[in-house]
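Lab notebook, bench 4. We co-purified these components, and the gel suggests they stay together. Before we commit to crystallization screens, I want a quick structural picture of the whole thing.
Request: model the full complex, all chains together.
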Amino acid sequence: MALLTCENLSLGYENNVVVKDLSFQVDAGDYLAIVGENGSGKSTLMKTVLGLIKPLFGKITFGEGLKKNEIGYLPQQTVVQKDFPASVWEVVLSGCLSKMGMRPFYSKEEKRLARENMRKMGVTSFEKRSYKELSGGQQQRVLLARALCATEKLILLDEPVSGLDPKVTAEMYETIKELNDGGTAIIMISHDVGAAIKYANKILHVAGNVFFGSTDEYLQSAAGKRFLAVTEEKYD
Amino acid sequence: MTEFFAYFQFPFVRYALIVGTLIALCSSLLGVTLVLRRFSFIGDGLSHVAFGAMAVAAIVGITNEMLLAMPVTIVCAVLLLKSGRNAKIKGDAAVAMISVGALAIGYLLMNVFPTSSNVSADVCTTLFGSMSILTLTNFEVWLCAGISVAVVVIYTIFYNKIFAVTFDESFSKATGVKSDAYNLVIAIVTAIVIVLAMKLVGSLLISALIIFPALSAMRVFKNFLSVTIASAVISVVCSITGILASILLKTPVGPTIVIADIVTFAGFFLAGMIKGAKRV
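Here is the predicted assembly.
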């Protein structure tokens, strides 16, 4: 039984179908990279998996005791957050909210969890600082710590390195890899096919022809070869 | 000075101070989340809705205007805040639409079916606030106190949820937080506070009570808890100062409070600049 199984998904908004016939699954410990061009439906897919929008057709099932709301999420930055007065501690702690139910305040256990995840992500030293004053890389670490407070089973990352410089990008990928090695399944949306091939063990290419398989299979596939040719040109 | 203290002999002055303080407290609490969600203008919009509804109530002959104004405003608040970011007409446009529309309907109805001889004075009173805060009845003071206590209690209970939903709605929703329910709570409380606040400063000046304290606090404070507390303190202090000043200087109550808020904002703006400069 997989953590997450998607069968014959059709995604989109109202009458506008973005992706058709998408099937894939994520097992415990997997590192799935979702790649594809802009507008191919990567973000729509992620929102559907998170339950923010409903699939037009098809089925999403959760397994191995993973509940629908036990998915951690690293969203892209919103405009609101750019000038939001919030300390790092407040942001990380808010990841525990889904565990609270109707209880109004955080328990000792939840505060301990937040502290532990801040330590894991190396953001403890600036717990009192304002989130908006941090660098892009530090902000992403804070949001990762928050996601870890929500769950340790499965984390979805939406373009986790967008806007980061190459050094911080590499560090971010290493951090994600360490999380994955620690047993957290990862789903990452990325433009960066190079990194996807380097770190992920499964790849979902959302495009005209959907590809889903292991990273090795992807390298042999037509879609993979075409995409690689383009990106290699860019990097050379 | 003795003349100043003599004013406190009058119950209406004490009532005005109590009610003014309470409304300032409630609106400043909500202001923080509304400003951060880019809904600064909702105070203006919803108060125009309340104005329209009160005009209709007066014409239809409902003696207690609140009975109609309150539910109508709540419905509009829910529609505006709930559909929020996914709406077909985006937040600011939707607020502007409802605001202008309700104002037009209210004014038109008041002109076509005049209930008193001086329509423009009536409109002016509703929009800019009147001396109505000085003519409060005992019942209104208790009602206002009761609602204010309820707002503060609700805000405290939902404080952590309001923070999470305001900071990152997608994350909250994705991790199973009932964002829609909390948005609904915020919308209803906002509507109630606005209809109440109309009594104090009038429809056009409600926005000031909602946005100024929050914006002032954000100049200097950098985390959510301190911004919330500072905003409440600033609002209460400005309100009391404004009411007292208006009595002494014989100026209209609402605008005087807003002037106090503007002066405070300028002060905090400077303080924030100095604080920022020191750090660099």
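Chain B has a mean pLDDT of 83. Worth comparing against the SEC data before the next meeting. Residues 2-272 of chain B form a domain with the ABC transporter involved in vitamin B12 uptake, BtuC fold (CATH 1.10.3470.10).
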